[in-house]
Design a protein that fits this description.
Blueprint: E1 14-20, E2 23-29, E3 37-42, E4 51-54, E5 61-68, E6 72-78, E7 105-111, E8 120-125, E9 128-132, E10 140-141, H1 143-146, E11 162-168, E12 176-181, E13 184-188, E14 196-197, E15 218-223, E16 231-235, E17 239-242, E18 250-251, E19 260-266, E20 274-279, E21 294-297, E22 305-307, E23 325-327, E24 335-338, E25 344-347, E26 355-358, E27 364-371, H2 384-392, H3 409-412
Antiparallel strand pairs: 1-2, 1-27, 2-3, 4-5, 5-6, 7-8, 8-9, 9-10, 11-12, 12-13, 13-14, 15-16, 16-17, 17-18, 19-20, 20-21, 21-22, 23-24, 24-25, 25-26
């Protein structure tokens, strides 16, 4: 068994949480983000698809989901960056017996709002949303979604029927967006009592009806707290923006090499800036042309630019999955992503340049980042892209990047079974 190492972090440091198919790792650096200490692996040998760092009310609590194909999935936590780990004596996240459902995996862990510091959420497979009101001690399913009338018609994708994205609204405590593969995006406006499909304009390329009410394979949805009515969505074929909290979606795949992909992350300070990593197609799930490129928009999707400095541009047939791209809240922002080949790349200058933080890890499936001591109340407000985006808006669609690839006839007929990893 590998020797477990530990790190410690103080206020002002940056940590990057890395979930892999063989355990969890914690990376630590100071704000310069040049040299990194590595802690872990924790939950050795177990797939870790979800991690989170909760620092509301002065906490410094790590969360991760430990999956066992023999013993099931449990939530683990640590208040000292992994040196001591708390595992529940009984499964804390579990379906009620009358539902006749069995927990297969935890795909997302999301702390609630700052004004509700003891609330946490989990997205699980089979698709359901769980909620804790006591800082993670006990959990219960959100009944409005568990008993949704669409549930009998939801179908799993290649990665299962998983609720992988949870987006609490930054200004409305009763509103939340979730995403399920392959059910699509759903939103509640009444604190979870009812949920409505919010997929208008998003296509389901693998279905006969390309624009159904639900059944889309949404891969990721992100939001910036300063503009909560605006959402960005990476789909299984498709890249979209909504300006009305998800009521409708607009195609924004302008100048990207492919509109297929998994991951997406919002810039922490600029609501116009979003990052993605395009993937060739649903049949060849590697970076287009063997080039590892992060694409960034600074004008809300009117155009995209490739960020390549420090990234390999030859024979880089990499895959970056839906939860493996993240940003910290420093200024300039740090951007991080992990690959299925076990590499973690980082940028400390908003994505302008990149370097390898660590390599040789097991396949990376989850990356989260945090500036330690930032409780969400003291974020610098900096909107560098706003004025510039107004100037270039009229040039939408004139990017010099390669034209995006559309779904081929072969991929269109590939069926729902390939709708997610």
């Amino acid at each position: 068994m590998p020797k477990v190492k530990h790190v410690s972090a103080k206020n002002g440091d940056v940590i990057v949480l890395v979930g892999t198919m063989k355990g969890a790792f914690v990376l630590r650096s100071n704000k310069a983000r040049k040299k990194w200490d590595v802690g872990g692996p924790y939950s050795i040998g177990a797939p870790v698809y979800a991690m989170a760092f909760d620092q509301r009310q002065g906490r410094r609590r790590l969360w991760w989901a430990q999956q066992s194909f023999q013993w099931g999935t449990v939530l683990c936590s640590s208040d000292d960056y992994g040196k001591t780990v708390t595992e529940p004596e009984a499964y804390s996240v579990k379906f009620p017996e009358e539902s006749k459902l069995t927990l297969k995996n935890i795909w997302q862990i999301t702390p609630g709002r700052n004004d509700d510091p003891d609330t946490l959420y989990c997205g699980v497979e089979p698709a359901a949303l769980f909620e804790s009101r006591d800082a993670g001690q006990t959990w219960s399913p959100v009944e409005g979604l568990l008993n949704h009338p669409h549930r009998p018609k939801w179908q799993p994708g290649g990665g299962g029927l998983c609720l992988h994205t949870i987006v609490p609204d930054a200004t409305n405590p009763r509103r939340m967006m979730i995403a399920i593969s392959t059910a699509g995006a759903y939103r509640t406006d009444d604190g979870g009592a009812t949920w409505q499909a919010r997929n208008n304009g998003v296509r389901a390329e693998f279905l006969p009806d390309k624009h159904p009410e639900f059944g889309q394979c949404v891969h990721k949805v992100v939001q910036h707290g300063d503009r909560p009515e605006r959402l960005f969505l990476q789909n299984h074929w498709g890249l979209y923006r909504s300006d009305d909290a998800g009521n409708s979606w607009k195609d924004i795949a302008n100048g990207v090499p492919s509109d297929f992909g998994f991951c997406m992350a919002a810039h922490p300070h600029d609501p116009e800036t979003v990052y993605i990593v395009p993937i060739e197609s649903d049949q060849y799930r590697c970076t287009p042309e063997g080039k590892l490129r992060v694409y960034r928009t600074k004008n809300a999707g009117e155009s995209w630019e490739p960020l390549t400095r420090g990234l390999p541009q030859k024979n880089a047939n990499e895959t970056v999955l839906r939860d493996a791209l993240a940003t910290d809240t420093c200024d300039p922002a740090g951007v991080y992503f992990g690959t299925r080949s076990g590499k973690v790349y980082g940028s400390s200058d908003d994505g302008k340049s990149w370097h390898v933080i660590i390599e040789g890890l097991p396949a990376v499936v989850c990356v989260k980042a945090a500036w330690v001591g930032d409780d969400g109340k003291n974020l610098p407000r900096r909107h560098r892209g706003t004025e510039k985006s107004k100037a270039v808006k009229s040039k939408a669609g004139k990017s010099r990047s390669a034209p995006r690839k559309k779904a081929s006839a072969k991929s269109k007929s590939s069926g729902r079974a390939r709708a997610a990893r």
